[in-house]
Structure formats: structure tokens, C-alpha cells
Write a structure and sequence with these properties.
Blueprint lengths: L9 E6 L3 H26 L9 E2 L5 E2 L3 E6 H6 L8 E4 L6 H6 L5 E5 L3 E5 L7 E6 L2 H14 L1 H8 L6
Parallel strand pairs: 1-4, 1-5, 5-8
Antiparallel strand pairs: 2-3, 6-7, 7-8
Amino acid sequence: MADDVTVEELILIVTGAHLRSEVGDRPIAYGLRERMMRWIEGAFGESPAGVGGSVDPDGEEKSRPRVVVCSDLWYLNDSSLRGQPTVSIGGPGVNALSAYLTDKLPGVLVVDDVLMVQMDPKLEDLTVSVWGIDHDATVTAAEAFTERYLDGFMEAATKPWRV
């Protein structure tokens, strides 16, 4: 339930509030969300409701990470969200978070003038920017992030739940 969500349990996927982003990037974000949720189910076991808590061997409900897609406007205007593990989808022209991150994160995968995956390779900072020059390139960048970096990102992002 939405009223049960606390910021500390969130892993965020941020898309632009631009119409092109809504049409092109939001579906990519929801695909990534599904992949992250499957990762969480594999790591923590399936949740009865598909989100929220799970039950430990003593029958107590435990919190688990939740993956939420939100707009860049929401993310940038709510300082409490900025400390959470975050993947930004879409280029600087349609996503204000990606624009902000362009000179703040190193490129771990760069195809000049085509696509980019930016993130801290040590995963100390759990903010990622994934984008391409057009929709197809952004899809390719998101697929590359998923194949090459998602497991490490999710391991680091869910560490607080596994201690």
C-alpha cells in the first residue's frame, strides 16, 4: 500500500517529466523495475503481495526494498529521496537528474555520441545515469546496465536489508 511506504526502503528509478521521456523512457524504467523486483525476490524470497515485507522463520514480517519509478521533478524537489539508491533513465535533454549528473559521475560504459552508463565503479555512491542519444540507444544502454552492472548495484543497494 502506498501509505505504508517509507523512504528508507526505496530503490528509485527516475525518469524525466518531459513528454518524450514519458513515452520513451518510462517503459524502459518499468522494465528495469520488473528486473530489479525479480532480483529482490531471488535474494529475499517472494513476498506474498509482491511488494513490501516478507515473513521470517519466526513468523515476523520483515521489511524489504521496494523499487519505485518516479519523475525527476519529484526526485529533485524531495531531498529525502536523494540519499536512496537511484537509477536515472533518459538523457540530459529530457531528464533533469541526468543533466545534473553528467559531470558528476564517471562513465563506466561510453559509446561516443551514442550512449552512456555513468556510475561509481566502486559502488560507494549508488546513483546511476543510463541514457542514449535516442530511444533505441537508451534501450541499449539500459540493457547493458542490466547485463553488466545490475547485480553489483543491487547487492550494494540491498546491503542494509541483508545485515
